[in-house]
Amino acid sequence: MIGINVAYLPPKTGAVEIGFAIPTETVRDVTSKLLKGEQVDHPFLGVRPTELWPEVVDRYDIQARSGALVFDVVRHSPADDAGITAGDVITASDGKKTPTVDAYLAVLRHSKSGVKVRIDVTGLGGDRRTVRATLSDQAKNP
Predict the structure, then answer these.
(1) Is 128 strand, coil or helix?
(2) Contact, 94 vs 107, CB < 8 A?
(3) H-helix or E-strand spanning residue 120
């Protein structure tokens, strides 16, 4: 391992001390696999998730109270093909609840590329539906 990506925007940039880093669990999983000589798979659904902040829930009248809010969907990705759209909230993946973005990413990280997964989503209007998507490898999706 060479290092861990970190980005930090201090208040003088106009940000409110925003920091980004690779989650510790991801580092542990990847490091463990690399030390065992295993190949690291990066399952890719094709959503850009964000936390479901109370202010966002109120502003956009989002019906879900927990989950990973889909901020954006990558065109021609497994999520796009499955009908997931910006504004949807991912509440479970393959039967595992995803109350936060970290929980969603953990479930995704423990999946495999090429596997079909069941994703439970709640749309902006409160409609609940289950979609199926075949995960691809993130390295093959620029």
Answers:
(1) strand
(2) yes
(3) strand 116-122
Distance, in Å, from the CA atom of 70 to the CA atom of 122, rounded to the nearest integer, reads 10
Phi and psi torsions of 124, nearest 5°? -55, -35
CA distance 14 to 111: 38
Long-range CB pairs of 77-82 (<8 Å, 24+ gap) are 77/44, 77/45, 77/46, 77/47, 77/136, 77/141, 78/44, 78/45, 78/46, 78/133, 78/134, 78/135, 78/136, 79/45, 79/46, 79/47, 79/119, 79/133, 80/46, 81/133, 82/119, 82/131, 82/132, 82/133
Residue with tokens 């993946």: 93
pLDDT tens by residue, 19-53:
566 777 778 888 888 899 988 888 999 999 999 88
